[in-house]
Amino acid sequence: MDLDALRFGDFSKLGTAAGDWETMAKKLWELESDARDNLGGKAAKASWEGVNATVTREFIGKTAKEFGDAATQATSIANILKDTHGELVGYKKQLNDAIQQGLTRNLTVVETGNGGFTVTMNIHPDRAAKGHEVPEHSPADATALRDQVQKILEQATESDSTAAQALTMLVGQTEYGFSDAAYYNRDRAAQAMKDADRIAELLKKKGDDLTPEEFDQLNRDLAAYKDDRLFQEKLATTLGPRGVLDFWADLSDPSDGGDLQRARLKELGDFQQNLSLVLAGATQSDSPAMRTWENDMVKLGDQRIETRGAQPYGFQIMSNLMRTGDWDNRFLNDYGNKLVETEKKMKLPANYWNAGVPPMPKMNFIGEDFGRDPMTGFMTALSASPNAATDFFGADNPDNAKYVLGDRQVFDDTPLNSKDGNSAFNATGAALAAAATGMNPNDPTARQVDLTPEHRKVLDRSLEYLSARGDEFPSEMRDDMAKVLSRHSDVTHHSASSLSDNDSDPRQLDRAQLLEVTKQISRDQDAYGMLNEAMNREILNDIHNEHPSDPKETLQRGGATIGFLEEARYQALKTDKEDPAWEAKWLYHGFGGAANFIPVVGDAAQRGVDALAYQWQLDEQARIDKGIQEQNGKTFQFRENQLRALSEEWAKAHPGHGNNAYTLENEINLAALNGNNRAKGLAGDQ
What we know:
The chain has 686 residues and is mostly helical. It contains 28 helices and two strands. Strands 1-2 form a two-stranded antiparallel sheet. Helix 4 packs across helix 5, helix 17 packs antiparallel against helix 18 and helix 22 packs antiparallel against helix 23.
């Protein structure tokens, strides 16, 4: 800042602007409260149907959030302006006080143009008025005044420029709408950007030549800034996409003789998580700089990043930095589409991902897998962003679902543990669950969202491609598909109990595909238990809340679904009958963290849930005690307690129906037998 600009500057307009923004922020917070409690609250409680259930409710939810973001951004702008105004007014006073103090020593400060200034004698002794004695000063006094003024101007310049930079980045975070980045003073924003510059330069220059102490401080810095939007964007753009890849490749490669990896091996996982969180947050910015960063990172995916001992691909490195955090949806889909395209060109991607002389030993320090398979890290990121996952699995061109669920070649990326599951299948299953339900399967507190046609599309595709795998269905995905069918319990129960295929019925799934997938789910005790718990609840919900023209339909559909599930279960037992541990597998112990995927039922149906679950478990124990032998199609015989409990619950929900307990239990048993036989026909076993 120039001398005269600060010395004579009128900062009242800046103060007025800060006050106006404070007033604006206050009004916006009032609107945010009204939007959240009234608009958003009423929308959440309303019973929506049709287009309103998917379009209008989502629009209202986004609109309510926009008020909050607008209030947050206005508050941040007001805080930065207020701090900057106070600082500049303070620096102006310091400058004028310093100049005034200089005059007492016969020194004055004069601007020389182009931002420069000089300290000179105010009145030469020879020109002083007669009888007037000019104060004396030393050369040291002049130097001290010059340095003092220079420091004040530098501080004022930093205050002004960092405020401008922070405000520019703040409003540039979103192309449309408002940013949720919150700053309570200018100093915090300025320090965040300064630290981002410092850390980026450190990573560029030193890589894995960092000392253990520098690494520890860097890890603490990243953890402290993992939620700071300006820091995230500044670090990412300053380091650049290639800088990110070069650093992680260098850090992962142990062949250069560096001591850091050995000295801090146990801490690398925490560092990887913190860096992932920072980069993920950066992608939430819609600024031109971050758009360019994301596009360039995607382009680098199929490029080799050479280290001293290996040549990993950009996808391999970057995917390992995507295992934590909330990544931008557009970036995830661009990245995923390019990854699929690259793998299809490779034909046998496992051969390429393991290539190199030697291949990079390990690029992932979170969990057991080495990080050579880039699909694992990418799918992990996708599972935490359900909307992006829905887009990815629902895409038509390319058909990503067909590739990752059906065609893709996988390989063992955990060679030190031959008994664990495949990491890529585990991650893909989680991403599929997110895509088909709109819920983050990694979050046990995730709430159910309204199912959309896009979620249903993912469900249909998953049934098609996974059922085609038959007994090669990945065991790692059994629990994920149980979550999917549990969340889609309405159409699952409706389809399992249907009397025939009906292409004009929008609620009906492909029953043959559903049977095969249900069979594969039933090969895992927890997945099997989860699906049955969901179906029990859905049947009860049907009995209490559905209103068909003939109430007996809900009773018969309940029995038919039980028969369908039993045939799938029998097919699973028959497939695994050579497994000597099969008897110990089937006792169900609960569905734990997947409870949020189970359908929520009304109060009337809820009263019957616990009793029905108890009867179902009694039947399960009876099956274990008696063995798996099928007797003339009566697989459902092990469901007598469950079926009786359902008939009793139906009687409670329909008083005055004219049937006694015997005829109702007989009717639901016949429905179960018929459902069982129809399922046999779908399996081709009749």
